[in-house]
Amino acid sequence: MGMCQPGGMESCEVCGFEWEAIEAAEVPSRLRAALDGWIELLESGDPTIQVRPTPDVWSVMEYAGHVRDVLFNLRDRIVVGLAEEHPVPKPMYQDVRIANGLLVADTPADLVIELTAGTGLLAKTVAALDGERLARTLVYPWPRVADRSLLWVAAQALHEAEHHLADARSQLG
Predict the structure, then answer these.
(1) Would you state the torsion angle of the CA atoms of residues 97, 15, 35, 133, taken in this order, to the nearest 10 degrees?
(2) What phi, psi does 54 have (nearest 5°)?
(3) What is the pLDDT of residue 8?
(4) What are the start-end ranges of the H helices in 43-107?
């Protein structure tokens, strides 16, 4: 999803998200706006949210579970980045989670609660940190292995929440 654009600004080739353009102050409110969109989808009562449109495309529920996992995982990566010098966090193993049925028991109501908790925790974490702390770095594996600031990590969580919300909405028309 990521690609380096002329001038060095990295942006998502699908949705146009620009990580370096994100300011810390906007992360909490944009995360909450994305959460509102997720809640709307999950509480829609549409039975197709549990169905993959094609075998290789996640269902709305799987996207929501992924975003939930991202919110918690990236919040923890930020905490590790505050505690350690230039850490190399473990991957999320999202495909392993899905392949081993770890998302099967998710219900729309569970996901609303968990997305709300993850959004709140990440939003509060970002809001609590000053520029010096957000400038600390860790090694991030995507879209290529690179040193990333903790603000970039927060922006990545925002990107995942917004980008996959658009993916999920497109499935439902």
Answers:
(1) 80
(2) -145, 160
(3) 61
(4) 60-83, 94-99
Question: Is the bond into 143 cis (omega within 30 degrees of 0)?
Answer: yes
Domains belonging to the chain, first-starting first, are: 23-172 (1.20.120.450)
> What is the amino acid identity at position 135?
A
**Which alpha helices (H) appear in 2-149, and where do they start and end?**
27-42, 60-83, 94-99, 108-128, 131-134
Identify whether the C-beta of residue 32 lies closer than 8 Å to the C-beta of residue 38.
no
Asked whether the CA dihedral 15, 46, 29, 87 is positive or negative, the reply is negative
pLDDT beyond 50 at 5 = no
Does the global pTM surpass 0.90? yes
Instruction: Answer yes or no: is pLDDT of 2 > 80.
Output: no
Q: List the beta bridge partners of residue 147.
A: 139
pLDDT digits 0-9 by tens, 97-138: 999 999 999 999 999 999 999 999 999 999 999 999 999 999
